[in-house]
Amino acid sequence: MDSWVRMLFLFACIVPALVECRVRHYKFHVVQKNTTRLCSSKPIVTVNGKFPGPTLYAKEDDTVLVKVRNHINHNVTIHWHGVKQLRTGWSDGPAYITQCPILPGQSYLYNFTVTGQRGTLLWHAHINWLRSTLHGAIVILPKRDVPYPFPKPDKELVVILGEWWKSDTEVVINEALKSGLAPNVSDAHTINGLPGIVSLANCSTQDVYKLPLESGKTYLLRIINAALNEELFFKIASHEFTVVEVDASYVKPFKTETILIAPGQTTNALLTADQKSGKYLIVASTFMDAPVVAVDNLTATATLYYTDTLASSPTVLTTPPPRNATQVANNFTLSLKSLNSKMYPANVPLTIDHSLFFTVGLGINPCPSCKAGNGSRVVAAVNNVTFVMPTTALLQAHYFNMKGVFTADFPPNPPQVYNYTGTPPPASSQTTNGTKLYRLAFNSTVQIVLQDTGIIAPESHPVHLHGFNFFVVGTDVGNYDPKKDPKKFNLVDPVERNTMGVPTGGWTAIRFRSDNPGVWFLHCHFEVHTTWGLKMAFLVDNGKGHKESLVPPPKDLPKC
Ligand SMILES: *[C@@H]1O[C@H](CO)[C@@H](O)[C@H](O)[C@H]1NC(C)=O
Ligand SMILES: *[C@@H]1O[C@H](CO)[C@@H](O)[C@H](O)[C@H]1NC(C)=O
Ligand SMILES: *[C@@H]1O[C@H](CO)[C@@H](O)[C@H](O)[C@H]1NC(C)=O
Ligand SMILES: *[C@@H]1O[C@H](CO)[C@@H](O)[C@H](O)[C@H]1NC(C)=O
Ligand SMILES: *[C@@H]1O[C@H](CO)[C@@H](O)[C@H](O)[C@H]1NC(C)=O
Ligand SMILES: *[C@@H]1O[C@H](CO)[C@@H](O)[C@H](O)[C@H]1NC(C)=O
Ligand SMILES: *[C@@H]1O[C@H](CO)[C@@H](O)[C@H](O)[C@H]1NC(C)=O
Ligand SMILES: *[C@@H]1O[C@H](CO)[C@@H](O)[C@H](O)[C@H]1NC(C)=O
Ligand SMILES: *[C@@H]1O[C@H](CO)[C@@H](O)[C@H](O)[C@H]1NC(C)=O
Ligand SMILES: *[C@@H]1O[C@H](CO)[C@@H](O)[C@H](O)[C@H]1NC(C)=O
Ligand SMILES: *[C@@H]1O[C@H](CO)[C@@H](O)[C@H](O)[C@H]1NC(C)=O
Ligand SMILES: *[C@@H]1O[C@H](CO)[C@@H](O)[C@H](O)[C@H]1NC(C)=O
C-alpha cells in the first residue's frame, strides 16, 4: 500500500462514519493517574488516563487491533471478556493461561475478529486485581443494514457499575493472602466511575453521575458490571426497563423494575423517558444471599434528569432491594430466554459427548505462616482441585509441546459424593492442588453441571467461560438430581451467555460446543474466588485443516 493510501485508510478507520471500515485500530496506554473519590486521592491504573476506560467500538465481522503499551511498574494483560476469539486464543488475555504478561515498558498487539456476536461486552485487565480500575465497554454494532430485533432507540448510553477501594487493590489482596482470611470489601460502589451522594462520618461527597433524558425518547442502556466481587441490583425510580440482550446475545424482551448483574455480565435494556419532567434516583447495590459473607453495603447513586427540568426540582427517590432479595434475583434470572428467531436461532446441543459434574466452592488448607488465620487459609476449588497458576502460559506450553507445565487429567466428577449443599459436611475441608486441564476434541458437545458446595458456607458463583458462549439449560437450589432435573431442562430457548450465576446452595447446568481450538479458562468471576483457586481450563484440540486450527502465535507474543 502507498503510504498516503495507508494514511487515508487509517484516518477513515478512526472516523468510522466515513467509510465501511473492517479494521479498527486502537491504542491503549496503560498509565497511572491520580484520582479523587471518597475524600482522598490515590494513583490508579487506567487506560489512556480514563476511568472507566475508553469504549471500544466495532461492527460484527470487524477485525480489531489494539496495541497495548504498559507504562506502569506492574505486569499487565487485557481480556476482551465475551469475545469468542475464534482460533485467536493468543489475544484472549488471561495471564499465564493464554499469554505471558506484558512487562513494564513493553507492548503487545491484540488482534481478533468479532464473529457471530453483537451487543455489549467489556474489556478488563486479567492479572491479579488490576481490573478494579482497568476496564471499559466493548460495543459491537450489528452489520451494516442489519437492524436491531427491537425498536431502534433514539440514543445509546454506556453505564458501567464498579467498586471503589480507598486502598490499592493489590495491597488489599496481598494482605489477605498473607493472613489466610477474606480480603477487605470495597469502600463504595460506582456508577460510571462515581459513587454518588456519600455521607460517611468523616466524608461527604456529591460525586454524582448525571444521565440526561429527553422527554418521549427511548434510550438503549448498555449496562456492565465491572465490579471485582459483587453481584449488583440496578434500578431507576419510577422507570421500567425492557431487557433486550445479555452478554452480546439477544433475548426475548421483558419488562422489569430491577436488573440483576454479576461481575463480567452485561445487559442491554431499553428505557423510555415517559415520566413527568424531573429528577429520578438511580441506585446500584449488592445482591448476596449468603448471610455470613461480608459485602460492601453502600449503595451507589446517580441521577437521571429530564433535560427540561428546573435545577431546583426535588429528586424522586427509590430504594434498592435488600441484599438478600433472592426472589427479586430469581425473578430476573428466570425471565431470561434466548430470542431464538429464524435469524438468531438457539443452537442448543441436544446430544452430549462430555457430561461433566463440577463442584464449585471453598475449602481450608494448612498455612503455617498465616497467623491471622490460625495456621490455615481459605482456598477455593473445582472438583476439589485448587488451581495452581503456572509460571509460563498454558497456550504456549500446549502449542510448543512444553512438558511439565500442566497435566490433562482434570476430573470429570468430584472425588467424593456427599450432601454438597447440606449436612453432614465432608470429613475434610482440605483440597488438593494442581494445574489440570480437561481435554476436548474439536467440535465436541459438552454439558457441565456446576454444583455449589456448603464447605465454609454456600455462596453464589458467577462462573465465566472464555472462548465460547454457552446455553443455561437449567438451574435450581439444593443438590442436582441426575434423574429428575434433566427432565426440566430448557433445550428450546435457554439464555445464551458467557457468565452466569450458580445460585447460593444450588446448581446450574450449561451446554456448549467446543468449536474453538485453544486453551480456555473457566473461573468464578468474583476475583477473590479466582485468586483462591476457583478456576480450571479446557484444552480444545485443533480440528481438520487450518480453518479449524489455532492461528500461529504472533511475533510480539510476550515471553515468560
Ligand atoms: C474515615 O474514617 C475511617 C474510619 O474511622 C478511616 O478508615 C478512613 O481512612 C477515614 N477517611 C478519611 C478520608 O479520612
Ligand atoms: C499523586 O498523589 C500522590 C499521593 O497519593 C502524590 O504523592 C503524588 O505526587 C501525586 N502525583 C501527581 C502526578 O499528582
Ligand atoms: C492479525 O492476525 C491474522 C491471523 O489471524 C494475521 O493474518 C494478520 O496479519 C494479523 N494482523 C496484524 C496487523 O498483525
Ligand atoms: C483492611 O481493613 C482493616 C480493618 O478495617 C484495616 O486495618 C486494613 O488497613 C485494611 N487493609 C487495607 C489494605 O486497606
Ligand atoms: C454496613 O456494613 C458495615 C460494616 O460491615 C456495618 O458497620 C454497617 O452497620 C452496615 N450497614 C447496614 C445498613 O447494614
Ligand atoms: C433478609 O435479611 C433481613 C435482615 O437481616 C432479615 O430480617 C430477613 O429475614 C432476610 N430475608 C430472607 C428472605 O432471608
Ligand atoms: C416478579 O416479576 C413479576 C413480573 O414482572 C412481578 O409482578 C413480581 O412483583 C416480581 N416479584 C418480585 C419478588 O420481584
Ligand atoms: C442434605 O442436607 C439437608 C440439610 O441438612 C437435609 O435436609 C437433606 O435431607 C440431606 N440430604 C441427604 C440426601 O442426606
Ligand atoms: C479433597 O482432597 C483432600 C486431599 O486429598 C481430601 O483430604 C478431601 O477429603 C477431599 N475432599 C473432598 C470433598 O473430596
Ligand atoms: C500443593 O500441595 C502440595 C501438597 O499438599 C504442597 O506441598 C504445595 O505447597 C501446594 N502448592 C501450592 C501452590 O499451593
Ligand atoms: C460441528 O458438528 C456439527 C454437528 O455434527 C456440525 O453440524 C458442524 O458443522 C460442525 N462444526 C464444525 C465447525 O465442524
Ligand atoms: C512479570 O512477569 C514476568 C514473566 O512472567 C515474571 O517473571 C515477573 O516475576 C512478573 N513480575 C511481577 C512483579 O510479578
Report on this model:
- One of its GO terms (biological process) is lignin catabolic process.
- It is a single chain.
- With 560 residues, the protein is mostly beta strands.
- The protein folds into three domains: 3-141, Cupredoxins -  blue copper proteins (Immunoglobulin-like), CATH 2.60.40; 155-334, Cupredoxins -  blue copper proteins (Immunoglobulin-like, Sandwich), CATH 2.60.40; 354-548, Sandwich (Immunoglobulin-like).
- It is 8% helix and 40% strand.
- Strands 10-9-14-19-16-17 form a six-stranded mixed beta sheet, with no helix packed on it. Strands 13, 15, 18, 20, 21 and 22 form a six-stranded mixed beta sheet that branches. A six-stranded mixed beta sheet has the order 24-23-28-33-30-31.
- β16 (241-246) and β17 form a beta hairpin.
- It starts with a helix and ends in a 20-residue tail after the last strand.
- 48% of the residues are buried.
- The model has no long low-confidence stretch (mean pLDDT 96).
- The protein binds 2-acetamido-2-deoxy-beta-D-glucopyranose (12 copies).
